[in-house]
């Protein structure tokens, strides 16, 4: 597998997620400085994710048409521009507007990654390659949660300075992406020969939307991201509710992502050797339900255990779900299939943090939100039994 491609995909994933996950540790600061509610601060976290939902499917279709290099490069530039603009304002409305720009870039970048893997990596190793750039997702999240309050904020002494620091990776990646990365020669010829009319887009979209297994998997992913984004967005607040300092809350919350980094390399290899996918999804949904139900019954000293549990579960689901479309559809449809998966997940997923913010504003705690997350995890358990087994052993049995 080409190392430059995988490293570039990992760096793009880091650049995508770091500017987003610097928001949860600063939630209490943003609320005070901007004079807004908990629910409104959650919009700064949720809007980029919703923009991913809006943009990912058309961006995936565009990636099928112009290639992953151009689509991902557009995304990297927009992420850098949006992130930089956020550091120029202290007005909540302008901050939301610039966050939209960042979110559009996020959508283009995210949708280009499955297409990139499909173009360069053999189908049987798609899960392993997906694990590599998924590790970048978790690295970006872990760094932002760990470093923002103890180091980055004191260094800059302003949220605008924090936004600037976390926009630097996107600027670097944009340069690397456009100067070093190339389409595979055979794929480039294939891209150039693709139809350029709207008929091509309609046919590809129609075929993708008629794939029942892909739609079911997309629904499962939407529930997964509802749980995951709610947990990631409010985990510092959950830790502080047990008496932890903002610095400690960042450290404990980041365990969700630090543990997922090695897991992103190990789990796809285990799934590859097992030749099965469903058991990993089912076990992960069960782990999420346990974490949500257990939170109110544990102390601050043992809170790290639930973070580790959610990190392992989320990693297993993410690397499996992102790789499965590459095993379910031909390579020329990978962009559209990946875009549908990402769109479905990011239309339903960002609702969770907003719900959590409203619950916190009304009740003063997140206990009810945890019961909601437990219900979502139980729904995932039920849905996992209906998912088809796409792994090689499952296909052989069928």
Main attributes of the structure:
Growth Hormone, Chain: A, mainly alpha
Describe the structure.
With 398 residues, the protein is an all-alpha fold. It has a single domain, classed as Growth Hormone, Chain: A. Helices cover 82% and strands 0% of the residues. Helix 1 packs parallel to helix 4, helix 6 (126-156) packs antiparallel against helix 7 (159-165) and helix 14 runs antiparallel to helix 15 (303-328). The two termini are 30 Å apart.
What's the structural blueprint in terms of helices and strands?
Elements: H1 3-21, H2 27-34, H3 38-66, H4 68-86, H5 92-120, H6 126-156, H7 159-165, H8 168-180, H9 185-192, H10 198-209, H11 212-241, H12 246-258, H13 260-274, H14 278-294, H15 303-328, H16 334-348, H17 351-363, H18 367-384, H19 392-397
Helix pairs in contact: 1-4, 1-5, 1-6, 1-8, 2-3, 3-4, 3-5, 3-16, 3-17, 4-5, 4-8, 5-6, 5-16, 6-7, 6-12, 6-13, 6-15, 11-12, 11-15, 11-16, 11-17, 11-18, 12-15, 13-15, 14-15, 14-18, 15-16
